[in-house]
């Protein structure tokens, strides 16, 4: 028989780093974690936007404190410097969410070099840069949890999204290898793979069409619809990341959690 006891008071608040914090999913996750009592180092290359986010969330009186940092995840030296500053000023990072991402659609045979390199610099190399800097410190301490926000497009081909699909696939397998290598050090690493989510990225991709336009799919581009009949909100994805950070997920690592309403049919 299992006996449940009331939760005891935690002696300290956990500290999370969230990249891409000024975006839809990133800002929703920063708010979710702070509401749950986690201190958040909200990082984004848009310095003004991330500062405004930190000030806004702090004004809500949430249990966790939110501090903004300008960070370019594609710049190795910047990542090392900012992570060192976070740990010096706020304490050891126990949670890392890799949320920063970019999408520039183009047919595979028409992708320009600059867009290809930028996509991989942020979506793939950025995940490696931040995960390496934070993961090394977590491994030394013997604990930590890393979640990379990928995409269901890493599992199925999408017309006009070759660079995005490939970069997200690279980020996914990197995170899983990281989790395998750091498991003995008490560090978990998982992936959350959203489908269509009501964000500025999706609205830009749809070029004026409403986000709900993707629900029925598009036979012309071989894209299935969303079986649940709705698209995700940024909070939906934030809740999934927060679950993987929680003690309820303490025996989960190397997992790719698809949060897409069934759109990829578990492909």
Walk me through what this model shows.
The chain is of the alpha/beta class and 267 residues long. It has one domain: Rossmann fold. The chain has helices spanning 24-35, 47-59, 76-89, 113-141, 162-182, 200-206, 234-245; strands spanning 15-19, 39-44, 66-70, 95-98, 144-149, 187-194, 256-259. The protein has a 7-stranded parallel sheet with strand order 3-2-1-4-5-6-7, with helices on both faces. Strand 4 (95-98), helix 4 and strand 5 (144-149) form a beta-alpha-beta unit. Helix 3 (76-89) packs parallel to helix 4. It is globular, with a radius of gyration of 18 Å.
CATH architecture: 3-Layer(aba) Sandwich
Number of helical stretches of at least 4 residues:
7
**Helix content bin:** 40-55%
- Topology as a string of helices (H) and strands (E): EHEHEHEHEHEHHE
CATH class: Alpha Beta
Reported by name, the CATH topology is Rossmann fold
**Class by helix and strand content?**
alpha/beta
Determine the mean pLDDT: 94
Short characterization:
The protein contains 7 helices and 7 strands, in the order E-H-E-H-E-H-E-H-E-H-E-H-H-E.
Secondary structure elements and pairings:
Elements: E1 15-19, H1 24-35, E2 39-44, H2 47-59, E3 66-70, H3 76-89, E4 95-98, H4 113-141, E5 144-149, H5 162-182, E6 187-194, H6 200-206, H7 234-245, E7 256-259
Index terms:
267 residues; alpha/beta; Rossmann fold; 7-stranded parallel beta sheet; 40% helix
């Amino acid at each position: 028989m299992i006996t449940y006891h009331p939760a005891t008071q935690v002696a300290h608040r956990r500290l999370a780093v969230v990249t891409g914090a000024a975006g839809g999913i990133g800002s929703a996750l920063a708010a979710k974690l702070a509401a749950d009592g986690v201190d958040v180092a909200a990082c984004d290359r848009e310095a003004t936007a991330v500062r405004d986010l930190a000030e806004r969330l702090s004004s809500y009186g949430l249990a966790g404190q939110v501090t903004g940092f300008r960070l370019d995840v594609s710049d190795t030296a910047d990542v090392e410097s900012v992570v060192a500053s976070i740990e010096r000023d706020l304490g050891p990072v126990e949670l890392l969410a890799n949320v920063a991402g970019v999408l520039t659609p183009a047919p595979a045979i028409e992708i320009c070099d600059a867009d290809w390199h930028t996509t991989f610099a942020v979506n793939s190399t950025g995940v490696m840069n931040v995960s390496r800097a934070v993961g090394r410190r977590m491994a030394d301490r013997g604990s930590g949890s890393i979640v990379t926000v990928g995409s269901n497009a890493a599992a199925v081909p999408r017309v006009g999204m070759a660079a995005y699909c490939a970069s997200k696939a690279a980020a996914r397998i990197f995170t899983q290898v990281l989790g395998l290598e750091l498991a003995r050090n008490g560090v978990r690493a998982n992936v959350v793979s959203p489908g269509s989510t009501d964000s500025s990225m999706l609205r830009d991709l749809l070029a004026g069409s409403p986000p709900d336009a993707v629900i029925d799919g598009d036979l012309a581009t071989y894209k299935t619809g969303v079986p649940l009949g709705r698209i995700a909100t940024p909070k939906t994805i934030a809740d999934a990341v927060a679950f993987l950070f929680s003690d309820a997920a303490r025996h989960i690592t190397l997992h790719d959690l698809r949060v897409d309403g069934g759109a990829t049919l578990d492909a």
